[in-house]
Specification:
Blueprint (H helix, E strand, L loop, with lengths): L6 H13 L2 H8 L3 H15 L4 E4 L2 E4 L1 H28 L4 E7 L8 H11 L3 E5 L7 H6 L5 E5 L7 E15 L10 E2 L1 H4 L3 E4 L9 H6 L8 E4 L3 H9 L4 E5 H10 L3 E5 L4 E10 L7 H14 L2
Helix pairs in contact: 1-2, 1-3, 1-4, 2-3
């Protein structure tokens, strides 16, 4: 059975869902208002149901229209990705690895790695999946990404981790902060500061587990800021301190726009890993990419 709607109908439904207006949807799609009205009538005639109801100058989706709009969003994104990948195949790219970094958007290392990787694997390319930053495990399970770089956590069923490098969590602060220049800090040193955190989740082996709780000290003021980039800018401006991965903060620390201190004399180490789906085979693109990441970092 052939689909009753084509791409133009899906684009129309998605545009009206976004804008709520036939005029704005027509402008977005680059068609006339009469052409869009014809497309609406044609879609409804082909399906033999109503997709929109008028509310003054606005269009409201019916339950059937809402279902189609949700599906259209996914289908159009998938089609765009497929077309993009087909074009890349014509340019010699055979494999595309979809990558994200859990919680962090730290890609300062990526150009150097890709230049190194391309010498051995010129038929590979990489897509950055920024929308999977906060849900990397779910994105792997749903197959919307192929590999996630994140601090070591127990791999859920169906996934496995490849160790990449050792790092440590550090307190970051503005260069003007009274603790800037200290080699290390204690929980008591930070007790009066506002601590900016992207998550309040207690991860085994991280700062709550190994820094705050053993001392029976908790920050007097905790603020959740869900974007690492926002935390960095707020810390630079003196709106508090944060505890983040040294590796991810390296560009800011090297430029002098941030200062750092270890968490206690021995620090709090954390191992980064590449998380990928298990059972795809040693020669699968994610496996090849993960092993190459581990080899590259071992030389750093």
């Amino acid at each position: 059975m052939r689909p009753r709607l084509d791409v133009h109908h899906l684009q129309m439904i998605a545009a009206i869902s976004r804008t709520g207006s036939a005029a704005d949807a027509a402008l977005e799609l680059g068609v006339t208002a009469s052409a869009l009205s014809h497309r609406i009538r044609e879609a409804e005639r082909r399906l033999d149901l109503t997709l929109f109801t008028r509310m003054g100058r606005s269009l409201r989706l019916t339950p059937a229209g809402e279902m189609l709009a949700r599906a259209a969003d996914h289908l159009l994104v998938d089609m765009e990705e497929i077309e993009h990948n087909v074009v890349r195949m014509a340019q010699g790219v055979r494999y595309v690895v979809r990558l994200t970094i859990g919680s962090y958007s730290s890609y300062h290392w990526l150009p150097e790695f890709l230049a190194w990787f391309a010498r051995e694997h010129p038929d590979y390319d990489v897509d950055i999946a920024a929308n999977a930053v906060f849900t990397p495990v779910a994105a792997l399970q749903e197959r919307t990404i192929d590999l996630a770089i994140l601090p070591e956590v127990p791999a859920p069923a169906g996934l496995k981790g490849v160790s990449l490098f050792d790092d440590e969590l550090v307190a970051i602060m503005a260069p003007s902060h009274p603790l800037a220049g200290h080699d290390w800090v204690t929980p008591e040193d930070l007790g009066d500061d506002e601590v900016l955190a992207y998550s309040f989740q207690n991860l085994p082996g991280h700062e709550l587990d190994r820094f705050w709780w053993p001392s029976h000290v908790v920050p007097r003021r905790y603020r959740r800021v869900e974007l690492i980039e926002a935390i960095v800018e707020m810390v630079k401006a003196g709106f508090g301190i944060s505890i983040l991965a040294r590796w991810a903060m390296a560009p800011h620390l090297e430029s002098g726009s941030l200062a750092s201190a270890r968490l206690a004399p021995d620090g709090v180490s954390v191992e980064w890993q590449a998380l990928l789906r298990d059972g795809e085979g040693e020669d699968s693109p994610p496996e090849v990419f993960a092993r190459s990441l581990a080899a590259w970092w071992s030389d750093r």
